[in-house]
Structures are given as C-alpha cells and as structure tokens.
Amino acid sequence: MARLDLRWHLRAWRSQSRWTRTRAAIADWLAQAPEGHEDLLLFGASAGWMMDDAFLARFRRIDAVDFESASGPLFKLNHRGVIARHRIEVRFHDAEALSRLEELLALRPQALVLFDNVLGQYTLTCRDVARAEATLSEVSHRLAGRNWGSVHDAISGPGRVLDIAREPVPLALRPGQAWPDDFLLDAVGGTGQWRDHLTRAVLPTTSESRLLPWQLAPGYWHWLQAGWVRA
Asked: Is-above-0.85 flag for pTM?
C-alpha cells in the first residue's frame, strides 16, 4: 500500500537553503555518471528534492520507482521546467526498490540505474538486521552487467550545529580504503549514539566513491556515500 509522508516533504521544502552544499556535492557526483544512456531507472525518486536538473536533462525517458504516494506529482512539480524543456517522458512505478528489482531492470534493459538515497533506508523498514545487511550486500551482484550508481546513508547521528560555510567538504574514498569513521565524526563534532545504515557493502570494494556530509536538521548529520559502478 502506498504511503504519504507529508512530514518529510515539508521538512525538505523548508530545508532547501540549508541543504545547498549537499545538493551541490550530489550534483557534482551526478555529473560523473556513465555516458551513453537515454533512459534512467531511478529508484527512490521521492519528490527529487536533492536531484539536479542538469543530470535529468541527459535523458529522454525516466522510470521513477517509489512507494510513497506524493512522490510522482511532487517530482513532476519540482522538476517541471527541465521535463518540459527537454520533453522528458516520466513514468512512475509504485514499488519498493529491492522487491521488484529484477522485474524493473528487465523492463528497461538499456537504462542507467540510480538508487537515490533509498538503500540507506532499508534498515528502517526491515526489522531483521542480518537480513537487511545481507540483502544490501547483494545489490551489486543483482546489477551485474549494468551501469549503475547509488547515493545512500552510511552513518547518521547528532553533532554540532554548523553554518553552511563551516560544513566539512566531501571526502574521496579510494577502492579498498578503510572507512575513516573517527575523521567523519570529528568533522561534524559527532556525539552520542550514531546509526550504522549497513550500506558499506553496497558498492564493490573496487569502486571509488565519495563521502558527502548532510546536515539533515540543525545539529543532526548524515554522511552519505555516493559511487558509480561501470559494467
């Protein structure tokens, strides 16, 4: 059954100015996406609050997947300009990202695949931690032979309230490099209990990625991991 998360959409709408640097960091990462695709298979579309119009302009068709009922109308509203200018065909599918993955991959076999801040939420909907971790670690195998990317929550928790100008910069994570957990927490003044979103095995160890800071609310931080995998 589709759900409606008005609280999230109101927070996102009110937070656009505070999220400026994170949105810019995501846009910079999206610009590095594999070329040669006219179709995009976008999992976790939501309303596209963090999505970049220049990236969307690369595609003639977008199949967006989300089980939140307001995602379709709000996505088209937020990105109406680029959709109209480039005559992008946008279709929405009411589904959870991983439960129908193979079906949707088969539907658009030539599409670039993007998980847009959705895989890090899987630990919140799957109550079995071991199952969640195993499922997330299988994502790269299920996408073998495809060009794909994901930006997802890695860790989150309380820290200092920082002005936009004082927010830390993104950090490159080289293939096989150990996660700099202490550095990430120190950069935002992390305190108290932090959540591990169990996504560290989503991307292959041979892939480069970036760690992006996101002050979701004043003094509450997420470190996102963003990376592309080429077939």
From this structure: yes
**In whole angstroms, what is the distance from residue 72 CA to residue 83 CA?**
13
Q: Tell me, what's the pLDDT at 3? A: 65
Q: 32 is written with which tokens?
A: 């590095």
Instruction: Give the ranges where the chain is alpha helix by DSSP (H).
Output: 6-14, 20-30, 53-56, 71-78, 80-85, 101-107, 122-125, 129-137, 139-142, 181-187
DSSP track, 145-196: TS-EEEEEEEEEEE-----GGGSPPPEEE-TTPPP-HHHHHHHTT--S--EE
Class of 6-229 per CATH? alpha beta
The enclosing H or E element of 94 equals: none
Q: Encoding tokens for residue 82?
A: 């680029």
Distance of CA 216 to the CA centre of its chain: 14
Helix (H) / strand (E) element for 39: namely strand 39-43
Whose tokens are 């993955």? That residue is 101
Q: Give the number of residues written for the chain.
A: 231
- Reported as a single tens digit per residue, the pLDDT across 103-121 is 999 999 999 999 999 999 8
Query: What are the domain boundaries of the chain?
Result: 6-229
Encode pLDDT of 164-203 as tens digits: 999 999 999 999 899 999 999 999 999 999 999 999 999 9
Contacts of 160 (CB under 8 A, 6+ apart): 188, 189, 219
